[in-house]
Amino acid sequence: MKPELGGPQHFSPRAGAPDRSGSDAGSSPAADRPVLEVIGVCKDFPGVRALDHVDLAVRRGEVHVLVGENGAGKSTLVKILTGAYSKDAGTIQVDGEEMVFRRPADAAARGIAAVFQEFSLVPSLSVAENLFLGRLATRTRLGGLIRPIDWSFMNSRARQALKDFGVDIDPATKVRDVGVATEQLIEIAKALSLDARILIMDEPTAALSRREITHLFGVVRLLKDKGVSIIYISHRLDEIREVGDRATVLKDGRAIATVELSDVPLDAIVRMMVGRELGDVFPDRKHGAGEVLLDVRHLTSHGKFEDVSLHVRSGEIVGITGLVGAGKTELARSIFGADPHDSGDLWLGGRPVVLESPRRAIQKGIGFLPEDRRAQGLVMPLSVRHNVSLPSLSRFVHFGFIRPSKENDAVSIRTRQVDIRPSDPTRRVEYLSGGNQQKVVLAKWLTAESAIYIFDEPTRGIDVGAKTEIYRLMGELAAAGKGVIMISSDIPEILGICDRILVLHLGKPAAEFSKDTATSERILNAAMIGQIQA
Question: Cα–Cα distance between 396 and 7 in angstroms, integer?
Fold first, then answer.
């Protein structure tokens, strides 16, 4: 008996889009005709025009890159296209027909789906269950009185869907037991199983290794060949030409240009995005290092990292890099007192200390900008002011009560210093762009007057202009005599900003380089095989 699905859609036999080989795919005029067209779309929020008469045209079977600084309007446009937000003005056309999306189901019914940075998978469910979530396949028995779940059918379809993407995995595997790259392909397969013809990919390579990125780009080309149109959002400008056909540049809520990526140099796109020449991305730093502020001696946490030693001097930026799973974040959390370690010592200012908690680390002058700023670095529903002052509240208390004027003065100084936009301290942090959220975290530790700053992947998911600002602020901290640890998987930025670089391999120190001796090749060899190439 033929399986039935719980929802109105059907699961495509293959992981790609439905076969439309009999349509107008072979005709050049049809191929150039937009499958999706955005015309004069506007969206206002209280006090802010997020989108200002934006135009966008996406052709069938193309990868259309959407670029712009944080706050340029990319996320708002995506939410309108997927039905999460309603537009205030303008029109959206799919295949030449005007659409009104009042909810996500409306966009899905017209073949629009999105794969976001934060996946919508249920970790405790299997791969197959996630692919069929909300529409489990069943078989009708006993005249419709019984409709048991058809696990065999779902597992078979799920296995084939992922195999088409080069992933051979047991569909009964729990999602929590697969890697990030596989989770992403599960999300893509889930979207395409609903016959998505327009797939939006938001920062798809942010947490992937180079090998995983190469695999993902192969999947993107496969989808293009099947006629799927892809809107690709990325801050990694070095990769957009590798995968994209055309790009639309957003700035201050406006679409200022659409260009053929093969015809335009990347520095021209950067100029369009930021409205200025960036000059040198990394600051010119000529400050000497002073006394040792932090000394980590033979720190070990079994199963995470082993026998790690490093020191940080005043005026110095020390980089820590390595592959995914090398123990970088775990080391940072242990130094900050968020996670325990099994052996080893920490010394601050030449004296041994025990940092049994983040509170104790903060008291000792350590600030930590975590990798996941939304979950670990900020209280999203609170205002900029309350987030910035949070670690320093004791400084603003008088007879048991917080003095708002003193708090406001301190916060204003720091928010101006890091140039948070918009500059309204009462604005809730959840409404800021990713780059400005990162600046709020930094302002928090500046207000706490930390002596040592640990930056864990500080530029992940932020635009090139915001990256330059973060690098500048790190340089200013070092110039002011602070000690800075920068953890990053981005080798060019490690080379560009750090004075010394520690490379971890499988949780163990593999090599340490000075700025003068470090090269991409030497760092990669140490990170990948645990030794320096001769």
Answer: 56
What is the residue type of 155?
N
Residues contacting 302, CB < 8 A, separation 6+: 342
Ramachandran sector of residue 146 (left: φ over 0; alpha: ψ -120 to 50; beta: rest)? beta
Tokens of 403: 């003095």
Residues 354-380: tens digit of each pLDDT = 999 999 999 999 999 998 888 889 999
d(CA 439, CA 443): 6
Q: Which residues of 505-520 are buried (b: 16+ CB within 10 A; e: fewer)?
A: bebbbbbbbeeeebee
Handedness of CA 386, 389, 392, 398 (dihedral sign): negative
Q: What end-to-end distance do the CA atoms of the chain give, in Å?
A: 65
Confidence of residue 6 (pLDDT cuts 50, 70, 90): very low
Residue 154 parent element (H or E): helix 151-163
Residue with tokens 């609170």: 382
**What secondary structure, in 3-state letters, does 228-259 show?**
CEEEEECCCHHHHHHHCCEEEEEECCEEEEEE
Q: Which of 318-327, 362-371, 385-394 has the lowest mean pLDDT?
A: 318-327
Please list, in sequence order, all residues whose beta carbon lies within 8 angstroms of the beta carbon of residue 140, skipping any fewer than 6 positions away: 1, 4, 146, 147
Residue 359 is encoded by which pair of tokens? 């509170």
In what helix (H) or strand (E) does residue 478 lie, and over which residues does it extend? helix 464-479
Q: How many residues does the chain have?
A: 534
CATH architecture of 4-29+60-88+97-274: 3-Layer(aba) Sandwich (3.40)
Backbone angles phi, psi at 30, to 5 degrees: -65, -35
Instruction: Tell me the DSSP string of 424-437.
Output: -TTSBGGGS-HHHH
Locate CATH 3.40.50.300 in the chain. Answer: 4-29+60-88+97-274, 292-365+484-534
For the segment 460-498, what is each residue's pLDDT rounded down to a tens digit?
A: 777 777 788 889 899 999 999 999 999 998 888 899 999
- Structure tokens belonging to residue 120: 């919508």
453: tokens are 């700053």
In angstroms, the CA 243 to CA 67 distance is 14
* DSSP 8-state symbol, 167: -
* CA atoms within 13 Å, Cβ hemisphere of 488: 24
Residue 107: CB atoms within 10 A of its CB come to 25
Q: Are 454 and 365 in contact (CB under 8 A)?
A: no
Please provide the CATH number assigned to the domain covering 292-365+484-534: 3.40.50.300
CA torsion sign, 140 to 141 to 143 to 144?
A: negative
Q: How open is the CA angle 271-233-424, to the nearest 5 degrees? A: 70
- CA 380 from centre of chain: 17
Exposed, middle or buried by CB within 10 Å (0-12, 13-18, 19+), for 1?
exposed
Within 13 Å, how many C-alpha atoms sit on residue 88's CB side? 13
Q: What residues contact 20, with CB distance under 8 A and at least 6 apart?
A: 227
